[in-house]
UniProtKB/TrEMBL annotation, chains A, B:
<feature type="domain" description="tRNA/rRNA methyltransferase SpoU type">
    <location>
        <begin position="6"/>
        <end position="142"/>
    </location>
</feature>
<keyword id="KW-0489">Methyltransferase</keyword>
<dbReference type="Pfam" id="PF00588">
    <property type="entry name" value="SpoU_methylase"/>
</dbReference>
<dbReference type="GO" id="GO:0032259">
    <property type="term" value="P:methylation"/>
</dbReference>
<feature type="region of interest" description="Disordered">
    <location>
        <begin position="194"/>
        <end position="218"/>
    </location>
</feature>
<dbReference type="InterPro" id="IPR001537">
    <property type="entry name" value="SpoU_MeTrfase"/>
</dbReference>
<keyword id="KW-0808">Transferase</keyword>
<dbReference type="InterPro" id="IPR029028">
    <property type="entry name" value="Alpha/beta_knot_MTases"/>
</dbReference>
<dbReference type="InterPro" id="IPR029026">
    <property type="entry name" value="tRNA_m1G_MTases_N"/>
</dbReference>
<dbReference type="InterPro" id="IPR051259">
    <property type="entry name" value="rRNA_Methyltransferase"/>
</dbReference>
<protein>
    <recommendedName>
        <fullName>tRNA/rRNA methyltransferase SpoU type domain-containing protein</fullName>
    </recommendedName>
</protein>
<dbReference type="GO" id="GO:0008168">
    <property type="term" value="F:methyltransferase activity"/>
</dbReference>
Amino acid sequence: MEMESYVVVHNIAKRHNVGTLARSATAFGVSELIVVGRRDFNAFGSHGSTSHLAFRHFHSLLEARSFLKEKGCDICGVEITDDAVAVDQHPFKRSTAFLVGNEGTGLSAKECEICDFFVYIPQYGSGTASLNVTVAASIVLHHFAVWAGFSERIRDGNKFVVAEKPAKQVKRNFCAETVDAIIEERKSRKQNASEFFDGDGNAQSSSNLLEGLFSDDQ
Amino acid sequence: MEMESYVVVHNIAKRHNVGTLARSATAFGVSELIVVGRRDFNAFGSHGSTSHLAFRHFHSLLEARSFLKEKGCDICGVEITDDAVAVDQHPFKRSTAFLVGNEGTGLSAKECEICDFFVYIPQYGSGTASLNVTVAASIVLHHFAVWAGFSERIRDGNKFVVAEKPAKQVKRNFCAETVDAIIEERKSRKQNASEFFDGDGNAQSSSNLLEGLFSDDQ
């Protein structure tokens, strides 16, 4: 059976981290980046990698869990819990989706509930206790790729060979939007319109949000 | 013999990365962060971790190499060279200093010259070819800590236990500044004054630069 990895982010706090996370996810052969909850982030920091990475959006953690369970995935929380296993022990069994916490706060109780098991990144010395969320996710994704035996990308000189990007006119990425989901979102937008105004008080249309999700800003 | 790890950064381009790098270095038990060349960065992104991490500054790569060789260190470049070994193979022998490249450009020929060997981080899939420099450094430092068998920090609930910070009046960190080095720097500052003006054209004093190096901005 072919192994796959997924990354799940839920209401991520710092916008710019999503782009850097997308870059790492691409580098480590992640199949899809799954965004749960708010999705009005841009892809700053991704250096164009989003063109190679599939995104998927769900409104709730339970919807995301159902989707991943249908795929036969374990859901692994990256968090320092009592039963968490050090990631370098490779406690993996099958395709795995990694749920990473918001910067600084770690995973909430609700987030922990959808996880099948937990890994943590051992720390040493006496200093900081919180790694940058993209750093933590990257270390975990790297270990999973090593464990799963993903095919290594071919190197050419001092660069990895990058596949040609799809032509601009071709639909890039995809988003699992159903008509129901769009209706649901419009409803919640009406209920809480203030969320959809930017700092200058300008309304952002739904298409702007989607555009932002897939933007290639560097 | 007790193993130690060091991080060497040379003319690092993106200021905010130094702070995040310092956070990771602290988490992975790095002994010192060695800054070569320009040092007018601040520690943004470090979340206070710089108080636990020792910094050292050298004007040239060769000075840094001499210092590290006296310590009995290997110098390992993090770069995709023909003879680079995948980092998960743990090609380490003794205390090691890791030289990480500027974001995007990798290591220069001059930087490669001071290295004893190279490691690279395997990539998978067909997307981006450049990992964020802090992500790359963090993966390497994590592997070295696992290989060296550093003592793992004690966990308490879902946090690592962090040592108490030194009181504010105590001199934090240190910097290997000799009188000669300061005279040398003042000389080079006169020769190339433009480097020491910020974006608004304001002159920055030497003490500001040093302050910036050790700042705790979050």
